[in-house]
């Protein structure tokens, strides 16, 4: 008596599945949640005169939420974007209209932050210790549905 083994290839050909191959990236990428922004530079935020301000621009057709893209700057260094000061700064976002649990986050290595939030007024709080500097700042931001809020923020080191 010989043992039967299962065939390596399925008995049915896989040809009927070929038209579905272009959809594979949608299945593999469970894309959702936090929007990591784009590679385009913010349209402003090149000088300390831009800090603690924001601009709104059209973003998408979402009827309930908008996107915040923020950039940190510092005047504690010759380089306004000194990664030793602006990278990985912890922040909280609180909705001033409805309250709720604040969202927690951290800037990336470039000192940028990207958050998808509901429309309304938001308070962004930054807190960090960088060497001899204690850094903190609060900025109120308006988020409108379907809009992008570009924010320029002083990390607030002293």
- Spans where pLDDT lies below 50 across 5 or more residues: 24-34
Strand order of the largest sheet: 1-8-2-5
Strand content: 35-45%
In whole angstroms, how far apart are the ends? Answer: 84 Å
- Largest β-sheet summary: 4 strands, mixed
* Total number of strands: 8
Looking at the overall shape, the CATH architecture of the domain at 48-154 is Sandwich
CATH class of the domain at 48-154: Mainly Beta
Give Rg in angstroms: 23 Å
- Spell out the CATH superfamily of the domain at 48-154: Immunoglobulins
Overall 3D geometry?
globular
- Category from helices, strands and their pairing: mainly beta
Helical content class: under 10%
CATH topology of the domain at 48-154: Immunoglobulin-like
Mean pLDDT reading? 83
Number of helices: 2
Order of helices and strands: HEEHEEEEEE
Annotate the secondary structure layout.
Elements: H1 24-28, E1 53-58, E2 65-73, H2 83-86, E3 90-95, E4 103-106, E5 112-118, E6 120-130, E7 133-143, E8 147-154
Parallel strand pairs: 2-8
Antiparallel strand pairs: 1-8, 2-5, 3-4, 3-6, 6-7
């Amino acid at each position: 008596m010989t043992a039967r083994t299962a065939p390596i290839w399925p008995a049915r050909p896989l040809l009927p599945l070929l038209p579905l191959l272009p959809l594979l990236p949608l299945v593999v990428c469970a894309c959702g949640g936090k929007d990591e922004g784009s590679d385009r530079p913010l349209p402003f935020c090149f000088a300390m005169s831009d800090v603690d301000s924001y601009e709104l621009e059209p973003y998408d057709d979402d009827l309930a939420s908008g996107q915040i893209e923020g950039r940190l700057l510092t005047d504690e260094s010759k380089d306004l974007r000194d990664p030793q000061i602006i990278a990985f700064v912890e922040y909280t976002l609180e909705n001033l209209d409805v309250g709720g649990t604040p969202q927690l986050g951290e800037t990336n290595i470039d000192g940028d932050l990207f958050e998808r939030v509901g429309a309304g007024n938001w308070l962004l709080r930054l807190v960090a210790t960088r060497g001899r500097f204690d850094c903190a700042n609060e900025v109120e931001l308006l988020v409108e549905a379907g809009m992008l809020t570009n924010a320029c923020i002083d990390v607030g080191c002293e």
